[in-house]
Amino acid sequence: MAKLEAQPARKPFDNTMVVPRKIIHIDMDAFFASVEQRDHPQYRGKPLVVGGRPDQRGVVAAASYEARAYGIHSALPSRLAQQRCPQLIFVNPRFEVYRAVSQQIRAIFDRYTDLVEPLSLDEAYLDVTLNKPGIASAMAIARAIKQAIRAETQLTASAGVSYNKFFAKLASGLDKPDGLYLIAPEQGQAVVEALPIAKFYGVGAATAQKLQALGIHKGADLKQWSEADLVQHFGKTGSYYYRVARAEDERPVNPNRSRKSIGAEQSFAEDLAALDAMDEALATLAREVATRMDKHQRYGHTLTLKVKYADYQQITRSQTVIERLRNAATLYSLAGDLLRSHLDPTRKVRLLGLTVSNLTEPLSKPLYNQLQLELPPFF
What we know:
The protein is α+β, with helices and mostly antiparallel strands. 35% of the residues lie in helices and 23% in strands. The protein has 13 helices and 14 strands. The protein has helices at 31-39, 65-68, 78-84, 95-110, 138-153, 165-172, 188-194, 205-213, 219-222, 227-234, 237-244, 275-296, 328-342, and strands at 9-10, 17-18, 23-28, 48-51, 60-63, 89-91, 116-120, 123-127, 157-162, 180-183, 261-272, 300-309, 314-325, 349-359. Strand 12 (300-309) and strand 13 (314-325) form a beta hairpin. Helix 4 (95-110) runs antiparallel to helix 5 and helix 12 (275-296) packs across helix 13. The longest helix is centred in the C-terminal third of the chain and has 22 residues, at 275-296. Monomer. The record marks 32 as: Substrate discrimination.
């Protein structure tokens, strides 16, 4: 796509330019699956998924583009994936390898800016308004990053470039795989008005149905609603919907982004019917979550129990306590109470999960903030 020059606005009553930020969203293409195809030439060009095998009651963690052509996607039960593509290759995940590659990619980002906000192993936001090489064009930086990733990891990434995080993430998905797409400031309002509501970042399937039931099918419909009405229906998220409907998203790229929850879950090879077996699984999960909290020095006040039944229907139930949840015994006791209060004893269980949220701040916290400076507006 041709580069479009952004036209800066001026602040009222002075001659200071108001310069759009330059945000890049990098999203690796089918990351886990692509690493496996890179490392195993016999898998290249073939439908492949990373995840549990059908005979292990697993689910798909990642799918190659060849597999996606059969309608296979992450979180799909492996049994269904195999039905859709009988020749599908199943590969067990190698998270230590994926983490190592992710660190390689992060090192590339760090050559250009310290303002990097990882979202997961395979995607991140970068603020390159100010950047280390002093390159004026964010498109040029995104292109250089993509080239470096390909040269150093033999993998491809898609990049979205825009003036805020909402549009940068949207843009990175518009030209996959190996894409590079720009949404310039003057394009933002038209893009968001035409955008189907289900495509809005942060709008899941249930929320999309709720919005559509209110007659909100596109961004143009959303823009007709007042902030007060949206807050009434959606809580504080309504304010976010109000702003993005006007192509506004002031969220900064936060290199110190802290996790909001710590959890673990387990799928079972055979559905559990006995409460004793579920208690044993909860004890294991409680130990795992407590270990992860200790590792990150983060503790919480809210415990959420997730129960997925054999028919794939699931429930979540939470309880918030005054004291900090920080040891396995407390987690296990609270989880057991939740399970006994809400479990349907007539149904078998295929998965249990525990998540601690409402977290405390980490013990050590960086002592610097992002500086906001104004620079010439060249994309």
